[in-house]
Amino acid sequence: MSKIDPTARVEDGAVIGEGTVVGPYCIIGPNVVIGANCKLISHVQIMGHTTLGDDNVISPFVVLGGAPQDLSYRGEPHRLVIGSGCTFREGVTMNIGTTKGGGLTTIGNGGFFMNNAHVAHDCVVGDNVIFATSATLGGHVEIGDSVYIGGLSAVHQFTRIGHGVMVGGVCGVRGDVIPYGLVNGQYAALEGLNVIGMKRRKFTRERLTAVRAFYQKLFHGPGVFADRMAAVRPLAGEDPAIAEILAFIDGGRHRALCLPEIGRPTAEV
């Protein structure tokens, strides 16, 4: 059965899963659903129409399900849905969605959110992400699986960050980042491929060679970018990662693509 500290306030209507521990001075709103075997250590506030899966660990002063920081919000009962197996360290905040964004903010499974990380309204965050200290998302951001966002980095609203990306610390990310990209700098620029991350995901030497060759042709070949895109399209069949990158670029809608900065040294690709 669940264990609720006598100093906690759990509103009527809230659902607390089997084996979940609600520690001292937590506040749980009436429209909150918490899965099994979660641990709310203390001083946690979960509000709004918020749903959490199983096995989440939530540290003090985390606030989940707060109203969007958006002037268009008029109190609509929009939602925040969080998966299972996530860790939320001290001071993390996540907001519900807005009407214009579809009314839903979603967080995948297995995420690790370090202290003071923030996810704004209408974001979609994938599985197994790591947000370092004070990593921040603006509204409507899309984050793929297995993304690492460095400390004090911020992602502009409507930006997409593809699967397997690594964002360095103290970056302002203003453009879409291709899957497996590595970005750095005050205004983030593409420095190469996240080779270390790709090796951890069991990319073979042959796969790395193919994707590196594709990357060099696309971003550092002769001619304008549109011509290079046309030239590398036949390479989509060589590796699933190449096809994924091309599909990601084709799917851009709101933000320009994050590109290498001319004159900046390029990391190993």
Structure overview:
It is an enzyme of class 2 (transferase). Homotrimer. It catalyses: a (3R)-hydroxyacyl-[ACP] + UDP-N-acetyl-alpha-D-glucosamine = a UDP-3-O-[(3R)-3-hydroxyacyl]-N-acetyl-alpha-D-glucosamine + holo-[ACP]. Involved in the biosynthesis of lipid A, a phosphorylated glycolipid that anchors the lipopolysaccharide to the outer membrane of the cell. GO terms for molecular function: acyl-[acyl-carrier-protein]-UDP-N-acetylglucosamine O-acyltransferase activity. With 269 residues, the protein is α/β, with parallel strands linked by helices. It has a domain at 3-140: Hexapeptide repeat proteins (UDP N-Acetylglucosamine Acyltransferase, domain 1), CATH 2.160.10.10. The protein is built from four helices and 28 strands. The protein has helices at 195-200, 205-220, 225-232, 240-250, and strands spanning 3-4, 9-10, 15-16, 21-22, 27-28, 33-34, 39-40, 45-46, 49-52, 57-58, 63-66, 79-82, 87-88, 93-95, 104-107, 112-113, 118-119, 124-125, 130-131, 136-137, 142-143, 148-149, 154-155, 160-161, 166-167, 172-173, 181-184, 189-193. The strands form three sheets. An eleven-stranded mixed sheet has the order 1-4-7-10-13-16-19-22-25-27-28. Strands 2-5-8-11-14-17-20-23-26 form a nine-stranded parallel sheet, with no helix packed on it. An eight-stranded parallel sheet has the order 3-6-9-12-15-18-21-24, with no helix packed on it. Strand 27 (181-184) and strand 28 (189-193) form a beta hairpin. The longest helix is centred in the C-terminal third of the chain and has 16 residues, at 205-220.
